[in-house]
Amino acid sequence: MSIETPPFAATPHSPVASPHAHAGASVTRVMAKVMLALLPVTLYGFWLYGWPAFHLFMFTITFALFGEAFALRLMRRPAVPVLQDGSALLTGWLLALSLPPWAPWWIGAVGGLFATLVAKQLFGGLGHNLFNPAMIARVALLISFPIPMTLWVAPLPMGSVGAPGFVAGLQITLAGIPQLDAVTSATLLGHAKTELARGIDLLHAAANAPVLSYIGDRAGSLGETAALLIAGGGIALIFMGVISWHIPFAMLAGIALPAFIGHAIEPARYLDVATHLLSGAVLLGAFFIATDYVTSPNTRLGQLLFGLGCGLLTWIIRTWGGYPEGVAFAVLLMNALTPAIDRLVKPRIYGRDRKGKPREPTAVKT
Amino acid sequence: MGLIEKVFSLLESRHWGVHPADRKRPAADCPVRGLPLPERLYVPLQQHIGAAARPIVLVGQTVLKGQLLAEAQGATSAAVHASTSGSVTAIGDIGAPHPSGLSFPAVTIAADGADRWADTGVSVDPFSLPPQEIAKRVAAAGVVGLGGATFPSALKLGLGLRSKIHTLILNGGECEPYLSCDDRLMRDAPDEIVDGIRIMLHATGAQRALVGIEDNKPEAIAALTAAARDFPAVLIRSVPARYPMGSEKHLLSELTGQEVPADGRTTDLGALVHNVGTAWAVHEALRQGRPLVERLVTLNGGAIDMPGNIRVPVGALVEDVLAFVGLKTEPARLVMGGPMMGNRLPHARVPVVKGTSGILALTANEATTLDPGPCIRCSSCVRACPVGLLPLEMSARIGIDDLNGAVAFGLKDCIACGCCSFVCPSRIPLVHYFNHAKGELAAQGRAQLRNESAKRLAAARTERLAREAQEKAAAAARRKAERAAQKAAAAKEAAGTTAAGAAAAAEAEAAQAISAEATP
Ligand code: SF4
Ligand code: SF4
Questions:
Q1: Residue B505 burial (10 A CB sphere; 0-12, 13-18, 19+)
Q2: B268 to chain A: which residues are within 8 Å by CB?
Q3: What is the pLDDT of residues B387-414, one digit of tens each?
Q4: Does the residue A356 lie in any domain?
Q5: Residue A133 is part of which domain span?
Q6: Predicted-complex ipTM score
């Protein structure tokens, strides 16, 4: 950087230029607020899916932190101050929330490492990554290890009959699930996709489909099934001023609108709005993933376009694509479009029109 | 266009700016105190933008309060007067209130303690004077904009006369946190301010004056409203408290709904913006004949024992003022002006000038510290920027030395208000970068001008040399042709038979000489 500290700076951290006051925000505080908003759904998820989910979560964030520290060590930069900003922890956390809760430990480990080491630090670290690191890692895992990444278990709350304890849970995470068939179950989206592929329409498939539950009583990832808690956390973030409503609102609308139209026209082929909104990573994606500062546009209008795109692409992938779920792909595609959106949509400068030309003076009315 | 524009403007956030904690009270509510006259005053010759004033007093001379010390020099300059009676002990450099710690020339006055005014009898009614005369007297009183920009006020008034002003806008926004000198002045001297406004209306030919005061100063609004009751041309308007409401373009937009075109001035819209303090100074100059030699200064900040507004003669040292209000603790930072746009002081041995609205002694807790991290593209700065710029993009361009890229993102429209740095969670010193880049650009501009003028000079020189050579060649050719003609004539005389041939030869020679001259 070409800007040197002037010689008359009193202390290294004390700026010469105004302003001399600050609103008090810091990156660590922002990340901490996001994690706070994620805490209820995470704890609830641990209870719902039991100890294996907890162990997988711990593996994921540990390796995410390790990946960040390792990359910094390679670049001979001190790791501790960067780790303290909380962004690596949050990346690992979000990834863990999107994994099948009983997935083996190495899924979390590979995903966590990949997210911070490759998807973030290889791009230049915080603020320089084009794509959402957690979603890149998720997609990479899904493509490389399709079987463990689509093996979902039905909820087996801690303390209920047959639920694994701490040690048994660790064994599941480390050595795999015994008696696979007894615990696995299809997600709603997965079920719909398989039935449609078998030529059974949704009206008939609905009879033996898993029921939609707002409080999480169904198969899915940690950050998926307890819809109320996720949306609640997201809305809390909006009220705390950490995110604005634009991206979540636009993304939900981007799914809900085509889903509504499709389902109204042909209910046998198209899932209804509620199933779309409450399944998979839509809520987590809308409130916590698409809203990632680094990879989303920086104007309000740009954010609305971005959110709409995420929603629409999710619906398209779910409906016509090869995967039952499409949030991660949709967000990544829109991440790629973010620079273009930012180039197109800029705020209007005071005294200029949208194209940047000076405005014509209009006389003040007296 | 229509619909799209509408959608855009609906989405356009009207929420520009920031809401810093204002910290104006209790200082704003304390009665004004006068600074006991210091032993020495250091009256700077440059307290305005533009050239320094030229001293007209000599060392050893005795001066009275209000006596002219230095006269304006150049187009945007302002006169400087003695702020107390005493003798001139030195004319030389003193530390300037600027973070650079550079020095600038000042007249040192050893006060005699009598504080005796020069005879400034004025008896004429300003409304009987022609507008030009008012501007002249305002200039003679050394009045400059008291909001901080310190533009000579008389020039602005003259500008108003020339460009058909119909609305005078008085800036009582005082949106900077901590500061309350304008608030105090409006509460304590509302009649004087309204009188000054009316004189300014007369001086500019404007039909009405809009006084914009932020709604966090209800006492000031009430006082001015009462003072302006009998003058329908003076309208007091409450505006929402928001930083930077005191930016003249933003206040104008808030009051009139119009926007000043980029690269334009408020006069393009028929409006002129002055600070309320300036109205008071105009009143003093025209009614009392008193030049601007003292002002209200807000002393505030956590390190100050008795914060409040102090009447300070221009040229008093910050040190003296701080001693008067007392320090609770050693301040971590001294700032002249407000916390958002003020200058950091290198030390307290700098004089108070006409543009000093406040002196802040901030504790370590109050003053920002920086530990800049990477930009996380949170767009807080985009939302805060009152101009509609993309501070993150500009700073990214400046970071890779791409100044033109930063200009393309609107660097030249940046008003250095500091909102972006204020909200940035990564604590990036954005304004510092922008100031640096603007400085670079200005230096480049100057260098380019220099180059161009050097090029012009060089071109002129080559041209001159070429012209001289040409003239020399032409003269030589002429002489040669004359000689040839003479020779021919002589030959003709000598031998009539060969005359024709010799003449032809001479002609050919002459023609050759001329063509040689033609090809440089
Ligand atoms: S300092 Fe410049 S870029 Fe920053 S908020 Fe103010 S006008 Fe915008
Ligand atoms: S506020 Fe700071 S971190 Fe956020 S986008 Fe602006 S420059 Fe980047």
A1: middle
A2: 361
A3: 999 999 999 999 898 999 999 999 999 9
A4: no
A5: 26-185
A6: 0.86
